Amino acid sequence: MQISVVQMNSRANKSENLRIAESLIQSAAQSSPDLIVLPEYFAHLGENRDDSRAASELFGEGEAWKMMSSLAARHRVTLHAGSMMERSGNNYFNATAVFNPEGRQIAHYRKLHLFDVDVPGGLVYRESDNVSRGDAVVTYKVGDATVGCSICYDLRFPELFRALRDAGAQVIVLPAAFTLMTGKDHWEVLLRARAIETQCFVAASAQIFGHGENGQKVCYGHSMVIDPWGMVVAQVPDRVGHAAAHIDMRQLDEIRTKLPVANHHVLPL
Q1: Set 149, 152, 200, 219: catalytic member
Q2: Does the pTM of the predicted model rise above 0.85?
């Protein structure tokens, strides 16, 4: 199985973001991957709630949703469309749509853990002011492989990754817009830890560089694929672009057989 992770610098111009996403998907598809993964908020990444909600989509009807469906079918690839601002009735979600090689949506995941930070005298950010949280653990199939869904801040909650492993996940995908300050210290460490704990491949597609007004909010990038032993097997350099990794499920099976940690898990008394 081959996975391509796409790294973007999305901003508040939705049309331009979609143009770039289309170009990157077309480029990544040239190596015939089975799965292409876009980053969090690939279609629109701004700091203004009203602008973000104005760029939101009804899944099944929106411009970005339709484009991703069309691109998956055109390139005959499973396309994990990072995340978008989804509008559903009066609610909004940070949500993923996944499309199979026929362009049909096969998975829909709404981010479970929302990034609410209020540091005295420092950073204040409340994702829950913009979106509601999801309520489901979601997996889907790419061929015979089971793939689990997560988004950005979910990375800090190993319980979700354990639940995905228990649901049969062999690959876990994480679109993200990790900040530079937290990313440089925690991004790779946490990704490798989640891969080791679950004995899964982890594919993380990230935003990079500045976004928001004047580009003052900076994302860390370093999109990567990690194997079940915790080794980084592919990584995008510090630029907009993509990287691909061939993953072998026989490696996963061998690791799980020799070190069957899932069979040894017990809850503390």
Answers
A1: 152
A2: yes
